[in-house]
Description:
alpha/beta, 39% helix
Amino acid sequence: MSRIVIAIGGNAILNPARGSPVEQQRLIDETCREIAQIIRKGYDVVLTHGNGPQIGNILAMQEECALVHPQPLDVCGAQTQGMLGYSLQQSLDNRLRESGITKQVATVLTQVVVDASSSSFTNPTKPIGIYYPESRALEMIALGIKMIHDKKGYRRVVPSPMPLQLVEEDVIKKLVSLGVIVIAAGGGGIPVIRKNGSLAGVEAVIDKDLTGSLLASAIGAETFLILTDVEKAALNYGKDNQVDLDEITVSEAERYIEEGHFGKGSMEPKILAVLRFIKSGGKTSIISSLDKALPALLGTAGTRIIA
Amino acid sequence: MSRIVIAIGGNAILNPARGSPVEQQRLIDETCREIAQIIRKGYDVVLTHGNGPQIGNILAMQEECALVHPQPLDVCGAQTQGMLGYSLQQSLDNRLRESGITKQVATVLTQVVVDASSSSFTNPTKPIGIYYPESRALEMIALGIKMIHDKKGYRRVVPSPMPLQLVEEDVIKKLVSLGVIVIAAGGGGIPVIRKNGSLAGVEAVIDKDLTGSLLASAIGAETFLILTDVEKAALNYGKDNQVDLDEITVSEAERYIEEGHFGKGSMEPKILAVLRFIKSGGKTSIISSLDKALPALLGTAGTRIIA
């Protein structure tokens, strides 16, 4: 049966500005309703998810709370795998039961080995967490915390090295072969490096779509579906002459990236992840919105990228 | 091969008073070194762990931080499964590699169905989290938060219903059958109830040793080993006439409970969990300290409880 990896955007399920746990659960429920329909069609589904706003919230709490020792970033990432894995597995289980499907769902905590020589460790550029008022940001910079300043204010930046290998790949594959619906590599995976054969966590985050493409290749998925907060990738996004894209080839996608059509921190990394999947032998990749997962797969929504 | 469930105390790996993440990792590493030796002896090991101090820290952070929406208790429990599952799986993986063992380790997020009719939902008695100064405690009580007052101060109390069923039981069994070392049901599991066939999280915590005994029975373990911060259960604990126990039968254990020998919030629930395991057909249960896991199994440390 056809295998598919579905990557759910962390921002898409929790709007940092208004996102209460109730709102997050509602969006997860809606998404899982779509995914249950995909499973009903007979696909073997593996789920992964982002964690941007969620890890940002944990960092904000740690900074404000003097009572509790802060945890390093890898451990915070592990906490978000627990939090979101639980929400997804419970919601998907409920939606499957409603549809009369008796498949099992399981979340596998996933460590991902990253490139230890990545320049992002010395020159971090990935913004995470909340915006800080200038006075607080300057204090943090004085403490050695790396920050950037954009039009909305100051944000912390952290390394975001390339994912190289899923430590729990074999376990994930075993469960998929047994027909279990696996949730894995949440938040792009818990970032680790190998030092003298041993694993060690590192203070970094990993792009969840790049890890999703690695996961999709590892389990031999035909399709890699990215669910985000827009339905289609577009040329001239947000301008008067915006053109939504229905289907593009790898070479078209590469040309559009060169021409700067895709947002640096938003659509471009998704397209890069998709290209990585297809160049590793994947067949189809689709970018669509949370509420259009099934139509995207059926070819009536989203942007499809093909070899 | 003989199966064993090992339950690691949350307090044993993080002393709430001094527990930094570094100290926690050191204790986890030491414990995993022992567990690697047990695996080397040929046992099929399933691990579970407590989360008392860790979930207490998350609650304390949520209360102090006005910026972030607090998460309900089931979600906080899921976060601790991510946090501690990650630490354990990485540490155990490293210790196994050092010992030349190539087994795989995986953490399965675990929901546990609890007794929805438990009186603990209307009359919660399980203390969790930090001690509060009186002024803050009275404010919290005025907000409807249930608190108790003991000799060290005020603490929040929450429901702690009986665990009835591991939702992910089949997945755990499948992985154990495949030779994977599974970490499951951390913190006693994420507490859920079934409502009209659907799962829903509840604001509660579950005794990790009771869930551990359920897990041990479910996977057909011969032995259920509880690792805590004392090496043996004792009669007249802490008094001049303290007698450490090497081996006791179920009926002796029941008599000692009646005579009030075991601490209500500490050793007694462990003995009750052990009794539940043996009455469900388990062969041997042992209570020992983190650093004496292997000697306990070999019969030279800990308290052994037999039918």
